[in-house]
Automatic annotation (TrEMBL):
<keyword id="KW-0732">Signal</keyword>
<protein>
    <recommendedName>
        <fullName>Lipocalin-like protein</fullName>
    </recommendedName>
</protein>
<feature type="signal peptide">
    <location>
        <begin position="1"/>
        <end position="30"/>
    </location>
</feature>
Length: 167
């Protein structure tokens, strides 16, 4: 079933630009037969201590997004992410202490929270840090975020994401 999703997504990819693809991939995969939903609930339970160096306020905003699979493509991808501000991806505050974002293969928004473990920072559901549904935050600033999925299959399909804050 997973191959069917990827094949369908690849077909759709040919008809849209890579920046738009990165923004709409969860919706495309859901339309290709429905992605597997997350096993966790949409709500966020009690908050854990905030990870060092990043706050929810850094995540909240309008972002241009693009992704890359090899480091040699990173500079080009940063430019694509900045260009993605024509159709920004919006991260808002959640009703609890998290942020509203999509997860891999699901078109719905979920409240995800910041968490840390093993010296790394993650965004994900109420679960131990480094859960397969988490995204690891590789670097961050007020103007740029770099994240990747923990799950190897999702990482292989989606690559490493560059989020460029829109003016």
């Amino acid at each position: 079933m997973r191959r069917q999703h990827v094949r369908c997504a690849q077909t759709k990819f040919r008809s849209i630009g890579s920046a738009a693809f990165a923004l709409t991939l969860p919706l495309i995969l859901a339309a290709c037969g429905g992605g597997e939903g997350p096993s966790s609930s949409a709500g966020v339970a009690a908050s854990a201590p905030a990870p060092t160096g990043i706050t929810r306020d850094i995540l909240v905003g309008r972002w241009g997004i693009a992704s890359f699979h090899t480091d040699k493509d990173r500079k080009r991808t940063e430019a694509e992410a900045r260009a993605g501000c024509k159709q920004p991806y919006t991260i808002t505050q959640g009703p609890g202490d998290g942020v509203m974002m999509h997860v891999a293969d699901d078109p719905k928004l979920y409240e995800l929270r910041l968490k840390s473990g093993g010296g790394k920072t993650y965004v994900g559901f109420e679960a131990p840090a480094g859960d397969p549904q988490d995204r690891e935050i590789l670097s961050h600033s007020r103007s740029m975020l770099v994240m990747r999925f923990v799950d190897p299959d999702a990482q292989r399909r989606y690559g490493t994401f560059i989020y460029s804050r829109c003016g």
